[in-house]
Write a structure and sequence with these properties.
two-stranded antiparallel ribbon, Rossmann fold
Length: 301
């Protein structure tokens, strides 16, 4: 930083003063660039695509509300959360087969279609495709999707005192009186691999996430995906602390293994080295189909 005796110091002061004066005058007299900046701000405020402070998509063109269907023993209520591949950052968009596959958000139901309300991003996602296949296969009569993934989030963000723990609580509380979650689907880990999170820390932070869920008397099983790497991470190896932690988590009560997208979704299935393309989404969903089942009491003999 230049000192007061340095001529550069006074040039910086003069430039700042002139910038202030020009900005003030452009605002008072509506000169360039004030009108252009104000116009852009106004257009963004009127945009049909809206996000909230948690980065969740809360409005998108064409969303169609429907009456919220009653939950039966053969209704899958999928609470999906984690980072970008659990949100709206994938390559292919999907539309629900009909009103048997819906997106529940903020107390209302919408025909499921990408991007889903409640998660970050505005591109494609896999949960609508999963809902379609669960219904079309006859495994469930309906699928209710509660989408809450936030791109780039770490497990610490979701744990107590993390920036997204309040979002987790808020979303769970919003389900009270409407739906009982049947499956929690957790897809997260790449951020922690990049941050060098230890196996111990990952496990402890996920335990905090789980405690937040159980504190609301929600006993649904939680499925943990194996997710820690991508093709753009040259240092990635299968034997890493995040994957080890995810392995150990399934030993906890009502915590089960989800798909292993580190190994099953190849670089060719990722449109940018990290996010799933249509082929990756198909693999992801087909893996879930091998895992998710209705409760025993609701299955046909």
């Amino acid at each position: 930083m230049p000192q007061m005796h340095d001529p550069k110091f006074w040039l910086i002061i003069l430039a700042a003063f002139l910038g202030y004066v020009c900005g003030l005058k452009s605002g008072l007299d509506h000169l360039w660039p004030y009108p252009q900046v104000k116009s852009l701000k106004d257009r963004l405020a009127r945009s049909p695509i809206q996000f909230d402070g948690f980065e969740r998509l809360v409005a998108f063109p064409g969303k169609q509300t429907v009456p919220c269907p009653a939950q039966t023993p053969r209704t899958a209520v999928l609470f999906t959360f984690g980072q970008s591949n659990s949100a709206n950052h994938q390559g292919q968009r999907y539309v629900g087969v009909d009103d048997r596959v819906v997106n529940f958000f903020d107390g209302r139901c919408y025909l499921a279609s990408s991007p889903l309300l409640g998660a970050s991003g505005f591109l494609g996602e896999s949960w609508t495709l999963l809902g379609n296949k669960l219904v079309e296969s006859g495994r469930f009569d309906r699928a209710i999707i509660v989408s809450a993934g936030i791109g780039g989030s770490s497990v610490a963000d979701w744990a107590a005192d993390g920036r997204l723990n309040q979002l987790l609580q808020h979303t769970l509380d919003g389900l009270q009186g409407a739906y009982r979650v049947t499956h929690f689907l957790w897809h997260q880990g790449h951020a922690d691999f990049l941050q060098g999170t230890s196996e111990r820390d990952y496990s402890a932070r996920f335990a905090s996430v789980l405690a937040t869920i159980r504190a609301r008397n929600v006993s649904a099983p939680v499925y943990v995906c194996k997710n820690s790497g991508s093709a753009d991470t040259s240092a990635w190896v299968p034997d890493n602390p995040v994957r080890s932690a995810q392995d150990s988590l399934v030993e906890r009560k009502l915590v089960f293994a989800g798909p292993d997208t580190d190994l099953d979704v190849t670089p060719a299935d990722r449109y940018d080295g990290q996010h799933f393309s249509a082929s990756g989404q198909e693999k992801f969903v087909n893996s879930w189909l091998q895992i998710l089942r209705p409760p025993l009491s609701s299955r046909e003999n």
